[in-house]
Amino acid sequence: MIVANITTMSGFLLLGFSDIRELQVLHAFLFLVMYLLTLTGNFIIIITTLDQHLQSPMYYFLKHLSLLDLSFISVTVPQSIENSLMDDGYISQGQCMFQVFFFTSLTWAEVAILTVMSDDRYAAICFPLHYEVIMHPSKCKWAVTAVWLSGSISGILFTAATFSITFCRHKIIHQFFCDVPQLVKLSCSNDYLGVVGVAAFLSAMVLTCFTSIVLSYIHIFSTVLRIPSAEGQSKAFSTCLPHLFVVSFFLSACIFEFLKPTSDSPSAFDLMVSIFYLVIPPILNPVIYSLRNEVMKGAFRKLLLGGEFTRKKTFLSCH
Q1: How many domains does the chain have?
Q2: Which of 102, 128, 278, 317 is deepest in the core (most CB within 10 A)?
Q3: pTM for this one?
């Protein structure tokens, strides 16, 4: 890889994890295994939720979360695998723009869908008698449409702001993907202020979502603790705790990543943090959501044994 000529090229140089060939192959192999596990787990979730017993809003949102996870990991990991196998960290500006757009869009969409899912659990547990009215199928479709559209808008804004920057330094990115903070450091003027403005706006939106999730769970836990039977409490917690774990893991990793200073020579720890919010959540989500859910495990067993999904359509409130 020739660093000297990278400033004259239209693309960027991703340094990735190592220049040692054996480690590059090991990285490609590990990423490939994680990518295949993610594809398998999330495809299983999507197919399983086609069961007519799993047509409640909770499973409808879970299906879209799995679609987001599939897309999210596909934006960066395949490109990183290819770069490692080819021993070439070059990425064109078009590919970099593609990564920034979809990474930003899907990150925001993931935060938004997790917020919608927390509202669903809040309605199911705190207002069980009105749940079917509050979470009417038409409202759920509008919520999911808003999630995807808002993600696209955030991606367009962030990409436009990022690539309005004049890159005048060595176009070297100390990451295995086109990381926006790393791109901003390549600017040698104040034209990166647009990125800061968009990032501040999106951060405020994320904070709003986070506050909404926290308030929802305060009400949820106060309601669950007032349920007289241990069985009722266990059933309520079984639908909430997986979501709470996913929210906590994803948001804490993202917050840590974007609050920490951007280094000119990131350490292995910095790269591991990126893996924790880019790669690990899409792998864990199918396991977490299906592990304590007997209905999903039953539907998956039917799928695994080749049985037909039930034709009877029901609306489960899961409260």
Answers
A1: 1
A2: 278
A3: 0.85
